[in-house]
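subagent[fold] <- orchestrator: predict structure for attached chain, return tokens only, no commentary.
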Amino acid sequence: MIVLVSWILYRYLAPKTWREWAGAGVVQAFIIALYAEMYGFPLTIYLLARFFGLDGSGLSANLWSSAVGLGETGMMISMLLGIFFIITGLGLFFKGWQQVHQAKKSDQLVTDGLYALSRHPQYTGLFIALFGEGVIHWPTLFSVALFPIIILIYYQLAKREEKKMVAQFGEKYRNYMKNTPMFIPRKAQLKKFIKQANN
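subagent[fold] -> orchestrator:
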């Protein structure tokens, strides 16, 4: 399933430069490691515990629900909260991609819609979706540790992209940078940003 989804994403949303490929590779490694840890190791432990008749009472929750002692109830809460973050993040990612794709046809700078609220709504959406899946819904030590590294890599990628945009659009892009936050919209615009993602 992961391979099929990855193929579809890379087929239609393929990175253009080697830096974009490097960032995409880190995200892909995050997703594969997350699902290997989420299904591979825990499922093996679960099956072995059942097979050998061992106590499996501690196998019914994730990291956060176990840490705060909420068990399956905490697991359900973190799952629902994580799914909300995933849907919101993916909504931002795909709507941002759609806006950029339409603007590329006419070689225009996109400064409306999501891009009026954030200069990089696609990356913001990616961060929110990965946070929802790898930190809230099903956290593992690897996914929690890798999450800030992914943010750092995409921050550096965004800075490089902005240099290209300044070279291409000049003062128009500099003014856009002054008036629009990089990733997280201003507090007054946050609800509008999330609403656009979920429409």
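orchestrator: received. Logging for downstream: The first helix runs from residue 2 to 12. The two ends are 27 Å apart (CA to CA).
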